Amino acid sequence: MNKIHVNTSVNGDNLEFLCDPRETLLDALRDRLNLTGAKEGCGTGDCGACSVTLDDRLVCSCLVLGVEAEGKSIGTVEGIAEGENLHPLQQKFIEHAALQCGICTPGILVATKALLEKNPDPTETEVRYWLAGNLCRCTGYDKIIKAVMDTARDLREAS
Amino acid sequence: MEYHKPGSFEEATELANKNAGIIRFLAGGTDVLVQLRSDIITPDVLIDMKYINGVKDIIENDDEWQIGVAVSGAEMSEHEKLAQEWPGIIEAMDLIGSTQVQGRATLAGNLCNGSPAADSVPSLIAAAAQVSITGPKGVRKINVEDVPIGPGKTSLKKGEVLSAIHLPKRTNNQGDAYLRFIPRTEMDIAVVGCAVSLEIKNEIIIKARVSLGAVAPTALLLENAAEKIIGSKLENKALEHLAEEASKACNPINDKRGTIEFRTHVAGVLAKRTAKIAYDRARENK
């Protein structure tokens, strides 16, 4: 089967890869570009572990084809920290122990970053609904929600 | 699997018409990719609609709204004027899946996937929405209720593709609403879905359309149920008659999420609740 050449931008870097048309963006990120931050949980758009942004829109990368990345701008968890400096969300997740096994964490970080950019002052209910598509089987969510609310507060005070 | 990016609906139609095997059109991909990944349906030809001009546009004309086939649920919810005119359609679409799914899922895809439980479909039927279908013989326009013909099946013929969704423009004194029952609060498939759209004059309902989802092989347009509330101020008696007609129209499946008896009963309850919300919205919308 002929592979398709795709030009895309990931975390601001222009990249290219060859992929089979059936291959998902998640597989392309992990297997072609060696960006293994996005995780495969369910592979059917239910768990959110593969969350990335596609032209600033939060999506499940398992429900996007690699070929659909052509000309798009992708954001993954690898682009959240600036060098050695963790993003405030990442700091707060550590402080609040908002992760255990960590498989869901990259997706949750990408999802919450997208939320706070859209809505810097969300209610707890809004955070819970926004993250309804990010499943976590360890934490019981409470620490995640607290970390997000705490980050939002800090970012608002800092701005 | 071949992957194509046609630049026009005519080109898409030609591709679909000349190729044999399984053809799928790709918009948001939240059904097509799940089926592909689960080895339920592997298309021989996948036609990506997103490179066609205008498919991401929500256009307001004098007499109608035109919604492009690749407009996502999130983009609809963010469109203030559309959300104000058609809150029922927006709330129905917004119930589908997570934030991530909302970033991709489309009205056109929800309709063409042919699920009897598709949330947006009853809301479109109640709204008297129409769709343009482009095919080898040109463009035809049909009512949304004529698109699904059974679970996973639509009336679209080989080579035909949905090319736009048309909603009427709203005038004052009109309102719509959608409610669904699911066993939990989020992220589930409708056990029953109900949409009502109506118009009032001096508080009396002069026009109404009622639609139910997930209680028959396709979403239903309930003309008899609508007649029960036309001419009323939605008094208890009218509501009871509406509920009776809604339950009577049900022909549901029995499954783990709801028995036949339960779905039939809930259809009546939801019809009453949905009609009340639509009525209140019409009264507020002066």
Strand order of the largest sheet of chain B: 4-5-10-6-7
User: Would you list the SSEs of chain B in sequence order as H and E?
Assistant: EHEHEEEHHHHHHEEEEEEEEEHHH
Give the total of domains of chain A.
Answer: 2
What fraction of residues of chain B sit in β-strands?
Answer: 25-35%
CATH topology of the largest domain in chain B: Uridine Diphospho-n-acetylenolpyruvylglucosamine Reductase, domain 3
> What's the CATH class label of the largest domain in chain A?
Alpha Beta
- Helix count of chain A equals 5
Alpha-beta classification of chain B? alpha+beta
Q: Helix count of chain B, per DSSP?
A: 11
Low-confidence stretches of chain B: none
List keywords for this structure.
heterodimer, A: 159 residues, DNA polymerase, domain 1, 2 domains, five-stranded mixed β-sheet, 5 helices, 34% helix, globular, B: alpha+beta, Uridine Diphospho-n-acetylenolpyruvylglucosamine Reductase, domain 3, Enolase-like, domain 1, five-stranded antiparallel β-sheet, four-stranded antiparallel β-sheet
Explain this structure to me?
The complex is a heterodimer of chains A (about 160) and B (about 290). Chain A has a five-stranded mixed β-sheet with strand order 2-1-5-3-4, sandwiched between helices. The termini of chain A are far apart. Chain A is globular and about 50 Å long. Chain A has helices at about 25-30, 90-95, 105-120, 125-130, 140-159; strands at about 5-10, 15-20, 50-55, 55-60, 75. By secondary structure, chain A is of the alpha+beta class. Chain A folds into two domains: about 5-80, Ubiquitin-like (UB roll); about 90-160, [2Fe-2S]-binding domain (DNA polymerase, domain 1). In chain A, about 40% of the residues are buried. By secondary structure, chain B is of the alpha+beta class. In chain B, the strands form four sheets. Chain B has a five-stranded antiparallel β-sheet. The interface between A and B is medium-sized, with 31 and 26 residues.
